[in-house]
Write a structure and sequence with these properties.
The protein is an alpha+beta fold and 414 residues long. It has two domains: 204 residues, no CATH class; 194 residues, no CATH class. The chain is 54% helix and 20% strand. The protein has 15 helices and ten strands. A six-stranded mixed beta barrel has the order 2-3-8-5-7-6. Helix 2 packs antiparallel against helix 9.
């Protein structure tokens, strides 16, 4: 048997009211909840997608774990590679040489982060070999001083394959005329596009042997880059390796290398959740005014139910049912709308950009120019639960008011 409180509450929800303004307010409350949930799910999915996409692009060029030596470099780096590969979660290791330099081509000059890489081992720890757009990864040969430039760096220098650029390094040469900067002519043998503006505009790749000569490291390297089977296990693996390595080195995992960026994104995501939840709260508490007016409109009905033996608790349940139904319908519509919008954001945003002839994201500012989306079930569930709780809370006061209606007073003027 269906409880009569539920039956009457659903009947009140479906019935056409004499006061059309009450019906309009009910519809507005329902749509307000739906729009708030749609906005919240979409924004959180976009922020999840943005975080995932940028993280993937950063780690496609950067490393999961960095094993660095001192200013003189890591001399026994081969021993370090052997030791780190013994860890069951380490799936790749590659030496690197880091340095800074000034690249010049004609009148064009740009600062660059120079990275010496091992042709055979770099593919184990990064996606750089797959990101070559012009030339070939194998063109980096020891002794030939070739260089692979990021696409935006090559564009800024206005150079292409086969052209030469001059590298000026900060470590100078002592001559009778004083301290002179070291200069080396390099041949552009490739151009890569990582899809991340910071790397595409500043990174220049050389063979590790050429970089050792350029930065006067002899047989040492700046450090070892490691890749693990799960990026979220990198902090734990880093701590475990720090206890087992027998060499003097400093370990840094990707969460610490980019701590400010990922912390800022996480804080921004939380703040957006709070701000957009307030929209849902405003729409949910519109139910208070809606149900107060419904209670006023239904005074005679309440009085009749009370005279037939309905308890104050039953009257309260009737109007709770009515408010919760409005909240549930608004929540369901909002979840459906949010999922549809978030899932098709990659189609909707380009259409808006073409229609109004502008770009929403500039990759110089936001690292990427496309708006990604990644829907997480826990986020959707949490949003729906918050909406339902707010809707339920909003029904308590009007329902309590209904339970306090005096039958004699309500029927006096009927």
């Amino acid at each position: 048997m269906q409880p009569y409180e539920l039956f009457v509450g659903l009947r009140y929800t479906r019935a056409k009211r004499r006061n059309h303004f009450i019906s309009f307010i009910s519809l507005a409350s329902m749509l307000g909840i739906a729009l708030g949930i749609t906005a919240l799910i979409t924004v959180m999915s976009v922020m999840n997608g943005f975080q995932k996409e940028v993280r993937a692009r950063i780690l496609g060029v950067a490393s999961h774990i960095l094993v660095q030596g001192d200013d003189k470099g890591l001399a026994n780096w081969r021993e370090v590679i052997d030791q780190t590969k013994k860890h069951p979660r380490v799936v790749g290791a590659a030496p690197f040489v880091n340095g800074q330099g000034l690249l010049a081509a004609g009148a064009n000059v740009r600062g660059a982060l120079v990275r010496g890489v091992s042709i055979s081992e770099e593919g184990q720890v990064s996606d750089l070999p797959q990101q070559i757009k012009l030339g070939a990864w194998e063109n980096l040969k020891p002794g030939e001083f070739g260089v692979i430039l990021g696409v935006d760096l090559a564009r800024a220098l206005r150079v292409s394959l086969g052209e030469r650029v001059t590298m000026i390094t900060p470590k100078g040469q002592v001559t009778p005329a004083g301290l002179l900067p070291r200069m080396r002519s390099l041949t552009v043998v490739g151009i890569f596009a990582a899809g991340h503006y910071e790397f595409d505009s500043t990174l220049a790749l050389m063979h590790v042997a050429d970089a050792q000569k350029l930065f006067q490291l002899d047989d040492a390297v700046s450090g070892i880059r490691l890749k693990v089977d799960d990026i979220f296990a990198a902090p734990q693996v880093s701590r475990e390796l720090a206890k087992t390595l027998t060499v003097d080195a400093f370990l840094l995992d990707w969460t610490r290398q980019n701590v400010n960026y990922f912390r800022a994104v996480e804080i921004e995501k939380r703040m957006m959740f709070i701000i957009l939840t307030l929209i849902i709260a405003v729409a949910a508490f519109n139910l208070v005014s809606t149900l107060v007016m419904v209670v006023t409109d239904k005074h005679p009905d309440i009085a009749i139910l009370r005279t037939l033996g309905a308890s104050p608790g039953s009257i309260m349940k009737i109007f709770i049912v009515q408010g919760v139904v409005i909240g549930v319908i608004g929540t369901v519509l909002g979840v459906i709308g949010g999922l549809l919008l978030a899932a098709n954001i990659d189609v909707i945003v380009p259409a808006i950009e073409r229609a109004f002839n502008f770009q929403i994201l500039s990759k110089e500012v936001y690292y990427i120019s496309e708006i990604p989306s990644h829907i997480l079930a826990p986020d959707v569930i949490w949003v729906a639960v918050v909406s339902l709780v707010l809707s339920f809370v909003a029904t308590l006061y009007p329902s309590w008011r209904a339970s306090k209606v005096n039958p004699a007073e309500a029927l006096r003027y009927e």
